[in-house]
UniProtKB/TrEMBL annotation:
<dbReference type="InterPro" id="IPR010559">
    <property type="entry name" value="Sig_transdc_His_kin_internal"/>
</dbReference>
<dbReference type="Pfam" id="PF06580">
    <property type="entry name" value="His_kinase"/>
</dbReference>
<feature type="transmembrane region" description="Helical">
    <location>
        <begin position="16"/>
        <end position="38"/>
    </location>
</feature>
<dbReference type="InterPro" id="IPR036890">
    <property type="entry name" value="HATPase_C_sf"/>
</dbReference>
<keyword id="KW-0418">Kinase</keyword>
<keyword id="KW-0812">Transmembrane</keyword>
<keyword id="KW-0808">Transferase</keyword>
<feature type="transmembrane region" description="Helical">
    <location>
        <begin position="84"/>
        <end position="105"/>
    </location>
</feature>
<feature type="transmembrane region" description="Helical">
    <location>
        <begin position="50"/>
        <end position="72"/>
    </location>
</feature>
<dbReference type="GO" id="GO:0000155">
    <property type="term" value="F:phosphorelay sensor kinase activity"/>
</dbReference>
<protein>
    <submittedName>
        <fullName>Histidine kinase</fullName>
    </submittedName>
</protein>
<keyword id="KW-0472">Membrane</keyword>
<feature type="transmembrane region" description="Helical">
    <location>
        <begin position="141"/>
        <end position="165"/>
    </location>
</feature>
<keyword id="KW-1133">Transmembrane helix</keyword>
<feature type="domain" description="Signal transduction histidine kinase internal region">
    <location>
        <begin position="184"/>
        <end position="265"/>
    </location>
</feature>
<dbReference type="InterPro" id="IPR050640">
    <property type="entry name" value="Bact_2-comp_sensor_kinase"/>
</dbReference>
<dbReference type="GO" id="GO:0016020">
    <property type="term" value="C:membrane"/>
</dbReference>
Length: 371
């Protein structure tokens, strides 16, 4: 839990800080007004002032956390999904809860502040005595009005600022996606001769190996299919492919590696798929499996490579665990996993999690994607 909180703060500290600054202005004004009442009462309101300051500090910290969760995890997602009915229900519901809690926690302090002001008014024979008596008699109404106005004003200001920041981030992400797509298209044009040469060569090798070895010819055929898939022949306009096709080619990668080791690799594969219409960023799962083949010790039947795939209408869960290879490690730049993280972030943003756990013996990767 603490690790999750740490990651959230590290990722969204700028958003939290902006909310803190806006609320600081509001609560700073409240403390300033309390100070004026304190000075007007010739120190008779020391306890009231101290209570008001402590209440404001508590409210500042609580509302910074609460407003961050409310806006970034409820209001903005509902706004983008055009669920305006639920949007306003949440705002009104929170307003009712806030009024009840504030009356319970803070009304006593406000009542004492009004009393201090009235005592000073009596001492000075203030000409506005009648009006201040009326205010005191209706202090609950004034307290309620200040709560509603303060809550809505803060929420509107913070929501507008957060929405502008969110739109700006979305625009940057879209621009980066378009740039990557353009770079990919330019690279494809630049190297368009190479795939033809590669596939012609593979077809030639396949035709020559068919009479000699079924296993070798089958391996060449699998390799050819994987290469066609890797070149993006099956992507849609959004850069996604069928999850079933990704899993099919992932199994092809597993088959080729089994051939490399004479079918001696220990692999425990299990899938539970109820949604066959799901789509995913291509080569993500394949890269994670290749990483296990590269760095894992898969020859021990008691400690096999474990791959678990669960897919339903709401999400994909991909789990892979391998025993780490002993001795000298293969040279690795980490580009594969870094690329996976980057592509997932661009496509899914907060709709995914990629957890990597590592100890002296095992390497575990768990990917969750919400559709």
């Amino acid at each position: 839990m603490f690790e999750q909180i740490k990651n959230i703060i590290k990722r969204d500290w700028k958003k939290i800080f902006i909310i803190f600054l806006i609320l600081l202005v509001y609560y700073g004004f409240a403390i300033f007004m309390a100070w004026n009442v304190y000075m007007a009462s010739f120190n008779n309101g020391h306890n009231s002032l101290a209570g008001m300051v402590l209440s404001s500090i508590r409210g500042l910290l609580e509302n910074t956390i609460f407003t961050y969760i409310l806006i970034y995890h409820a209001m903005i997602p509902l706004f983008h999904n055009r669920k305006f009915g639920r949007f306003f229900m949440i705002v009104l519901g929170i307003l009712v809860v806030k009024i009840i809690v504030s009356f319970w926690l803070d009304y006593g302090l406000v009542h004492e502040t009004y009393e201090i002001s009235m005592r000073k008014t009596r001492q000075d024979n203030d000409s506005s005595m009648a009006f201040k008596y009326w205010v005191l008699e209706n202090r609950k109404l004034f307290f309620l009005a200040s709560l509603v106005i303060g809550y809505l004003l803060n929420l509107v200001v913070i929501f507008v600022v957060a929405l502008v920041i969110d739109w700006n981030n979305r625009a940057k992400t879209q621009k980066e996606l378009e740039k990557q797509k353009l770079d990919a298209e330019l690279s494809a044009i630049k190297y368009q001769i190479n795939p033809h040469f590669l596939f012609n060569s593979l077809n030639f090798i396949y035709s020559k190996t068919v009479p000699l070895s079924d296993e070798v010819s089958h391996a060449v055929l699998l390799l050819s299919d994987i290469m066609r898939y890797a070149l993006g022949k099956e992507e849609d306009a959004n850069g996604l492919v069928s999850l079933d096709r990704e899993l099919l080619h992932m199994k092809n990668v597993i088959d080729i590696n089994q051939m490399r080791f004479n079918n001696k690799l220990s692999i425990l594969y299990n899938e539970n798929i109820t949604n066959h219409k799901a789509r995913i960023v291509p080569l993500i799962l394949i890269t994670l499996v290749e990483n296990a083949f590269k760095h894992g010790d898969l020859l021990n039947p008691n400690e096999p490579l474990v791959i678990q795939v669960d897919v339903d209408d709401s999400k994909l869960r991909f789990y892979i665990c391998n025993k780490k290879k002993k001795g000298t490690k293969e040279l690795s730049t980490g580009i594969g996993l870094k690329n996976v993280r980057h592509r997932l972030q661009l496509m899914y943003e907060k709709k995914h999690t990629l957890k990597v756990q590592e100890d002296d013996n095992f390497y575990i990767t768990e990917l969750t994607v919400n559709f």
